[in-house]
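Before the break, one more example. Copy the sequence into your notebook; we will annotate it together after we see the structure.
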Amino acid sequence: MTSASDELTEPTGQQSEPAAHRTPSGYRALREVPGFWRIAATGLLSKLPISMTSLSLLLLISRHHSYGVAGLAMSCAAIGQGLTAPLRGRLVDRCSHRPVLLCCLAGQVGAGTLLVVVVREQGSPLRLLALATLLGASAPPVAVMMRTVWQGAATRLLGPAMALDSAMTGAALVVGPALAGWLSVSVSPVAPLLVVAVLSAGAVGSLIGLPVTPRPVVRGHGAGPLRSAPLRRLLAVNGLFVCAVTGMDVVLPSYAREHGAAAYAGWCLGALSVGSVVGGLVLGAVPALSGGPRHRIGVLLCVFAAGAGALACAARVSPPVVLLVCPVAGLAIGSVFAALRTAGGDLAPAGRVTETMSWLSALDLAGGAVGTAVFAQVAAGAGSGTALAVVPGVAVLAAVVGRFPVRAPQASHASGSR
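Here is what the structure looks like once it is written out:
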């Protein structure tokens, strides 16, 4: 994708040799988008509550109930969020986004308040699990809507925009759990959930204030975006990729324990996240990469598979070598996520951009759940080294499945995007 907006700002009398050889940065062009800083700030604010919720639930509920019940509550929240994500996305596309966001926020705050009360009264685990499910199901779809906002505000610069969005997600996954853990230990076990509510309210308020392009009325088939075969294949690729990434997250702590280096677990996961953020930012900074050829997703998946393979080889050596390789193994993670979101925006039917992005988020949760279960079993039965060696195979499978055109034929949604 070329940075056309930068080229158009050049004075006509200066289209000479220096301008011809100058390659504008994708982010420099993105900063020229009207309202860029507010959109970016809202996007970052929308990521933190999601990254804090799971650990906040675990730390709060485990104070008064067993660790197993706390883990089930985390799973229920994820299930509730994943199952209802497409529905919430469809409501945003069909109705005004303001009432949908406000209703979701009210439901989330209400469920969180009741959950805290039940936990402190040591209520039944079934009530806790039901409230945790409701907490996830009512989460305001702000983070998903931000991709829709970028879709309308920076249509020609969607690659850099999705790369920035992916990098912010990676940064939130580092900062959010650390903040939740610190608040739980230093302030109160309830404090992280209070901060989640405040951040969610701030993100909803900021997003409501952003200008939204009118959309056509969406009618027709109940399957919505799933009617598109290329989009269904994209969802399958997304699920497989998240499964592979989750596998690395699950297996690395197991590997550290097996080799008597438990302290390395957190450092390795942090190094993966740092590599992911750096790789995602690089993707958006280079216009040729952020635009990408037809099979860019497949290429990036192969790069990820190569990094995962290097990590599996490093596991045969020692934990310090694994730590050194982790940033390299994570370099393509953010880039693949950004490319998948960009392709999702391209393939979204008219007026169904938010619902399409919600399906991608639902497959994130489904892929993560499958990856956690499968790779934990492989690591327990065959060892962490073998489990790490399976990760590149899943990534290559995703690349094979993902051999599809990045644009749906005659399915432009420009008129209906935000």
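The first helix runs from residue 4 to 8. Residues 226 and 232 are 6 Å apart (CA to CA). Try to locate both features in your own notes.
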